[in-house]
Design brief:
The protein is an alpha+beta fold. It contains six helices and eight strands, in the order ββαααβββαβαββα.
Length: 182
């Protein structure tokens, strides 16, 4: 599956994306705020592509006309998320390389994947979350129409050996349809 927006292409991850993944994922401003450590080697990035970025709805984000991965986005289906155990609900996760922040890319890419979730995959609710202090992620969710649902004060972040405050938001298909109309 390939999704295209006005400025972006979302496609499956490839082994050949390891160099660009490492370039952006080694930046300490990118991963830790999202709950994963900065990559320390090209081999680590290769392993992430092989072992983590294999979900059926996991995509590399590329600028249109440039086949270079600059970020990742995924609809984590039942069995791959702890936000829901329903077959008709999923979780949206994402990150973007720092040189591409502030261009509206994440909102544009997420809108395409949300559309896929509701129209093609039959989702009724898409969940999303952000750790306390991750204002950029919070803002993306607000722009997309996600609404606050709840806060957990002690969420384990195993990859960083931490416990954090996590805010959970959701977008229902009905809410999304209203947004699309107007």
């Amino acid at each position: 599956m390939i999704l295209q927006t006005e400025r972006l292409v979302l496609r499956r991850w490839r082994e050949t994306d390891a160099e660009s993944l490492y370039e952006y994922a080694k930046d300490p401003a990118v991963g830790p705020v999202a709950g994963w450590p900065a990559h320390k080697s090209l081999e680590e990035s290769q392993a992430v592509i092989r072992d983590v970025f294999q979900g059926p709805e996991c995509y590399a984000i590329c600028e249109l006309g440039r086949d270079r991965a600059i970020g990742a986005m995924e609809l984590m289906l039942n069995g791959s998320t702890n936000m829901t155990d329903r077959e008709d609900e999923c979780e949206l996760g994402y990150w973007l390389g720092k040189p591409f922040w502030g261009r509206g890319y994440m909102t544009e890419a997420a809108a395409a994947l949300i559309r896929r979730g509701f129209q093609d995959l039959g989702m009724t609710t898409i969940w999303c979350g952000y750790y306390d202090g991750n204002v950029k992620s919070k803002r993306v969710q607000e722009k997309l129409g996600f609404v606050y649902h709840h806060t957990c004060d002690a969420v384990p972040v195993p990859l960083l050996h931490e416990v954090r405050v996590e805010h959970t938001t959701c977008l229902t298909k009905t809410m999304w349809e209203i947004i699309q109309q107007g």
